[in-house]
Amino acid sequence: MTSSAAAPIRQLAVMPRRLRVASRAASGARVISLANQKGGVAKTTSTVNLGAALKELGKRVLVVDLDPQSNLTMSFGVDPETVEKSMYDVLVHRVPIDEVIHRREVDIAVGSIDLAGAELALSSAIGRERALEKAFMSIKKEYDYILIDTPPSLGLLTINAFTASDGVIVPVQCEYLSLRGLVQLEATLEMIRENLNRGVAIEGILPTMLDKRTVHAREALDLLHASFGDLVFTTRIRKSVKLAEAPVQGGSVLAYEPECGAAMAYRSLAEEVITRDE
Predict the structure, then answer these.
(1) Can you give the pTM of this predicted structure?
(2) Buried b (16+ CB within 10 A) or exposed e, 63-92
(3) What residues have CB less than 8 Å from 62, skipping those under 6 apart?
(4) Which domains does the chain have, with CATH numbers?
């Protein structure tokens, strides 16, 4: 990365003063959104495998698919085209969320392509930003962690997720363009804090798809640390074919190849998440 290319990113160096580690939830499940408006950063992969790793540590875990692409749902072996009800029905028709929870490796509140129409359907609803928060009220005491896989955008679905969350984990591919998106995401969180949920904050930034053989990846990782310091998780998720193969088997990489490097990395991440929450 040339010095001129990196210059626009240097403004991120001032941002740690505005970012805060989220405080622990007062009661019930800790709700964490995994969010990045840039697609292809291993957000769904991280939701799947962090959820599985937390369960392996004895935590009660629910993962929630808010992405119309429904990749989280498919990753646990559920066909989104065959589900009778999904998170669309929960948000738009106020169906109890336990009616869309499927019991798999971890519990999953399934998504479907119908979610693509949720923002339009909710646009005129009173309290539309709090639809998800209200849906969680009936089940929060049943879980220790609720992880939300958000769409690759900062629209109403993601705003619902942030409003319902105690913290946000941001998976960031170690590339220059991925780092730039953090500025916009933090601006959205600031708006949420001012108007909807003053307690939500970035809980951690997760470097993903890391290939340390490339100079660009190493420079991007160094810049991430220089800009965000302790907010960057110690865990790094390296590129691994095992992470791509695991969803074909309908589960996490921890179930598919429990001793591989990727599985060990997500176990390390789960321990970091629990430590930060204590």
Answers:
(1) 0.90
(2) bbbbbbbbbbbbbbebebeebebbbbbbbb
(3) 29, 101, 106, 107, 108, 109, 139, 142, 143, 145, 146, 147
(4) 28-277 (3.40.50.300)
Residue 27: pLDDT band by 50, 70, 90 thresholds? low
Closest-CA residue to 147 (of 208, 182, 105): 105
Q: What average pLDDT score do residues 243-249 get?
A: 94
CB atoms within 10 A of CB 127: 10
Closest CA to 61 of 72, 71, 50, 69: 50
Question: What does each C-alpha distance from 61 to 16, 64, 77, 86 come to in angstroms?
Answer: 30, 10, 17, 18
The percentage of residues in the chain with a pLDDT greater than 70, rounded to a whole number, is 89
Q: What tokens were used for 252? A: 């996490």
Name which of 133, 169, 145 is nearest 22 in CA terms: 169
- Which residues does 48 contact at the CB level (< 8 Å), separation at least 6? 63, 72, 75, 76, 246, 247, 251, 252
Percent of the chain scoring above 90 in pLDDT: 71
Q: Are 86 and 80 in contact (CB under 8 A)?
A: yes
Question: Where does the pLDDT of residue 21 fall: very low under 50, low under 70, confident under 90, or very high at 90 and above?
Answer: very low
> Apex CA 19: angle with CA 16 and CA 24, to 5°?
135
